[in-house]
Specification:
Helix content: over 70%
Structural class: mainly alpha
Radius of gyration: 57 Å
Number of helices: 13
Order of helices and strands: EHEHHHHHHHHHHHH
Largest sheet: 2 strands, antiparallel
Low-confidence stretches: 1-7, 12-27, 104-124, 127-145
Shape: elongated
Distance between the termini: 143 Å
Number of strands: 2
Length: 340
């Protein structure tokens, strides 16, 4: 059938599924077949192109690495964080400027502005929380990184708790940083170069560069001081015995005079005892010809010499002291004293 076959409107609509706007017109069969073939070709090409595009997208996703994704997400999170920080800084600067501009007369208005500042702080906290939420909602993988950070923080807390646990009893103690450090005091003899101590007076007799101190020679040279001490003792005794003078003095002054009298007497007695000990040792060395004496022998010689030079009352007191010492030693040796 070489001729052209004509169809009506209803027949064409059954095959092609389309209606034409022209009323009561006829279409050629060849034109309809061509249109169908062309539409099929276009559909097949589009399907191929779509498949190729999907394959390209899959290839691009396969080339992207896990590290690149994480770095990109970190950068986005940092950008959001910087923006939120810049906003907070601007708000803080505006607050500081407003505080500086305030005058003492505006003290009444400060109470009313307290609620506003609280609302601003709430808004700041909300903005910070929003920024954190935005950083966390960037992608599903960012949650993974946040979980790793939280796990690290938990591990650090566990380590801190383990360190704060009670140590072994034999472990060395650690001094706290709150305790004050002891002050290092300056010793005058050590700081020779300082101007503070270089100008001060120094007694050559007690300087270590001149060797050991010879107490015997010093005592001979300054023996006249004993006369001054005796005069001082007599004066204090006369003052304390005179009731007219003591009536004008306070109790504190009287106690000071009494203490001064006792101290000067004890100094004189100690100096006299030392002189006597030196004399005893010197005489013993001259008699025996020995240059060195043991400490035990020296102590015995001094005790015997002192006992011989004592008067009757002094000897009795010395004997009583010795008797009390012996009794104390004997009591310590008894069993009932050792009981708890």
């Amino acid at each position: 059938m070489s001729g052209r076959v004509k169809f009506s409107r209803n027949q064409i609509s059954k095959k092609s599924g389309k209606y034409n706007s022209k009323n009561d017109e006829d279409f050629d069969l060849d034109d309809i077949l061509r249109k169908d073939s062309n539409s099929k070709k276009i559909g097949s090409k589009r399907g191929r192109n779509d498949n190729n595009e999907d394959d390209d997208d899959d290839d691009e996703m396969s080339t992207l690495s896990f590290g690149a994704l994480s770095t990109a997400q970190k950068k986005i999170y940092e950008m959001d964080k910087k923006k939120s920080q810049s906003k907070l800084k601007k708000k803080q600067d505006t607050r500081q400027k407003s505080k500086r501009q305030e005058t003492p007369e505006d003290s009444e208005s400060e109470d009313n502005n307290g609620s506003d500042s609280d609302s601003d702080s709430d808004a700041d906290s909300d903005s910070e929380s929003d920024s954190e939420d935005s950083g966390s909602d960037i992608g599903g993988e960012d949650v993974f990184f946040q979980e790793t950070k939280s796990s690290k923080l938990k591990n650090d807390k566990r380590k801190g708790k383990e360190e704060n646990k009670k140590r072994h009893k034999h472990a060395p103690t650690e001094t706290s940083s709150k305790r004050r450090v002891g002050v290092v005091r300056e010793i005058p003899g050590l700081l020779e170069g300082n101007l503070k101590y270089s100008k001060k007076y120094k007694d050559i007799r007690f300087d270590a560069t001149y060797g050991k101190i010879n107490e015997g020679e010093i005592r001979k040279n300054y023996k006249f001081l004993d006369d001054y001490r005796n005069d001082e003792i007599n004066q204090i005794n006369s003052v304390l015995k005179d009731k007219k003078i003591t009536s004008n003095l306070t109790n504190y002054q009287i106690d000071e005079l009494d203490y001064q009298l006792k101290s000067t007497k004890s100094k004189l007695d100690s100096l006299k005892n030392k002189d006597l000990e030196r004399k005893i040792v010197k005489d013993y060395k001259a008699e025996t010809g020995k240059e060195f004496i043991k400490r035990g022998d020296k102590r015995k010689l001094i005790q015997i010499a002192k006992f011989e030079n004592m008067k009757g009352q002094q000897r009795e007191k010395a004997m009583e002291r010795k008797r009390k010492r012996r009794l104390g030693k004997e009591f310590k040796q008894f069993d009932f004293n050792n009981r708890k």
